[in-house]
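Form 7-S
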Amino acid sequence: MSKPTLIQVVQSVLAAAIGVQSKANRQRDFEQGSLPSYLIIGAIMTILFILTLVTIISFIV
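Output:
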């Protein structure tokens, strides 16, 4: 088996953020994924989420 691709890592991080992920993907992540890639993508996604909220709020106010 090969390491998860960048797209698969992003999909896994997004699925984890909303709390839904298949058992097969979760097993793949824990068995073949590397922790630093998930942490980096998770940090980037968190920053993007915060910036999106700030942008939306600034347009409303």
